[in-house]
Amino acid sequence: MQNDQRPSPQKAPKLAMCLVGVWFSSGCNLDSLLGGDGALRETASYTTTYEDTLLDLARQFKLGYVEMVAANPGTDPWLPGEGTDVVLPTVHLMPNLGDAKPDGIIVNLADMRLYYVDESSSTTRSFPIGIGRDGLNTPIGVTKVVRKKKEPSWRPTARMRREDPELPEVVPAGPDNPLGSRAMYLGWPEYLIHGTNKPWGVGRRVSSGCVRMYPEDVETLYELIKVGTKVTVVDQPVKLGWIGGELFIEAHPTQTQSDQLEASGEFEPQMSGDIVEQILAIAGTNRGRLDWGQIRQATLERRGYPIQITR
Predict the structure, then answer these.
(1) What is the pLDDT at residue 45?
(2) CATH number of 10-88, picked from 3.40.50.1240, 3.40.50.2300, 3.10.350.10, 2.60.120.560
(3) Are strands 44-47 and 10-11 parallel, antiparallel or unpaired?
(4) Which helix (H) or strand (E) holds 11?
């Protein structure tokens, strides 16, 4: 059951690490990540009521289902129980685009989020998304928005109709349309960014390759972007960034681990040498400040929010 009004989050004083916390609805930049004293803001938590599920809370706080489960290991997603403190992973580091300047829409498959860089206001908005399931993966690369459509019709692909012969050739706009109320068509044929008539699929790997958004979020993004907007899709489970003179790591489950998390509530931990190389490269002359215990814990647990790894 969802409440009519979004509950108020509380600070999370029980968290031992210093976390970045800011609401994406107001944008995300360095100034908003720092408090008046120059210290990093803390993340937020929420104390559940009897009726809450992590699926409901994800929608209420503009989060995805898997990222809520990853941030709260051991919590029953369908019955967390009254009075349970759950972490709200409400802020994320930007994906690394190398020498390229962040521009337009950036989709990171690993954290199942879409980032929109608004050059006119120098802010970045972030939205939870659903992506392609195993065997129907969302492609990686660079494309652009080639068309926008309000109240679109949906035409199932030949593959979909082979798998389900009862599907009609065309589904008109309306509550039964899987595209929802808005669609942004990409330069990749058959791939779209669109709304949905099944919001529970946001923050999960359940689509046929398209990027799906909450109904309210797709309407917001639709008004922000123009035809021709650049779209960059990456898959970065581990992100790193310097904020306020400290290095942060944000580790998410890989796509395979996300599937494991959905299936059993846990995933097989892994820490590759590539992660170590990335950290050493960005640390540079500050390698002596690295907290390797914290790094190991963050990369094995993959809670999906920024954690400070310098001392």
Answers:
(1) 87
(2) 3.10.350.10
(3) antiparallel
(4) strand 10-11
Catalytic residue ranges: 194, 210
Average confidence score pLDDT of the chain: 84
Indicate the pTM of the whole model: 0.85
**Each residue's pLDDT tens digit, 112-156:** 999 999 877 667 889 999 998 876 789 999 999 999 999 998 887
**In what helix (H) or strand (E) does residue 279 lie, and over which residues does it extend?**
helix 273-283
State the Cα–Cα distance between residues 286 and 280, nearest whole angstrom: 9
Apex CA 30: angle with CA 119 and CA 211, to 5°? 55
CA nearest neighbour of 194 among 205, 208, 178? 178
Annotate 148-216 with three-state secondary structure.
EEECCCECCCHHHHHHCCCCCCCECCCCCCCCCCEEEEECCCCCEEECCCCHHHCCCEEECCCEECCHH
Q: Which residues 6+ apart lie within 8 Å of 56 measured at CB?
A: 1, 2
Question: What is the Cα–Cα distance from 108 to 97, expressed in whole angstroms?
Answer: 11
